[in-house]
Amino acid sequence: MDTYFSLLGLPANFALDLTQLEQAWRQASARVHPDRFATASAAEKRVAMQWASRINQAYDTLKNPVKRAAYLCELADYTVDAENNTRMDSAFLIKQMQWREQLDEVRGKPEQMLVLLNAIEQEAQTLEGCLTELLDHKKDFALAAEKVRQLMFVAKIQNEIKSLLA
Q1: CA angle 165–125–6, rounded 5-degree value
Q2: What is the pLDDT of residue 139?
Q3: Domain tally for the chain?
Q4: Whole-prediction pTM value?
Q5: How many CB atoms neighbour CB 50 within 10 A?
Q6: pLDDT tens, residue by residue, 83-101
Q7: Is the distance from CB of 6 to CB of 62 less than 8 angstroms?
Q8: What domain range includes position 144?
Q9: Helices 110-131 and 90-106: crossing angle, nearest 10°?
Q10: 120-123 — which CB contacts under 8 Å span 24+ positions?
Q11: Does residue 126 lie within any of the structural domains?
Q12: Does 83 reside within a domain?
């Protein structure tokens, strides 16, 4: 089975060099670029477009830490299932509630919102480090799926704060 990693010629790891990812995407995209198929048959053009779409989908998934971690879990037959499985450890739930309360308190105060955003970004980095250990070294996909759900929440509140600051 071709994975997004093999499609781009990359190791199937959570820890990815994003520069290497972009280079691999550019090379793969160049191989199926429509200009290369200008004189090809309609069927060949259609196949090239399908490959281009798959390459772009691979790049979109692998460049995003949440999507990349969830994809690695899925490859190992562990679904993150964030819509139905909202179980998280109590310490993280408390942290979520605290962030939400803090956001309510600092809404409209850009300097304080940036402080909160920085704290949440540190949590994201911690979770990404944890996911590197769980996915790339320990191969503990069950615990990684839980950490992915946590990272999804962190990304959501980060995006919310960034949109309020924009």
Answers
A1: 110
A2: 98
A3: 2
A4: 0.93
A5: 11
A6: 787 778 899 999 999 999 9
A7: no
A8: 90-165
A9: 160
A10: 120/154, 120/157, 120/158, 120/161, 121/158, 123/95, 123/154
A11: yes
A12: no
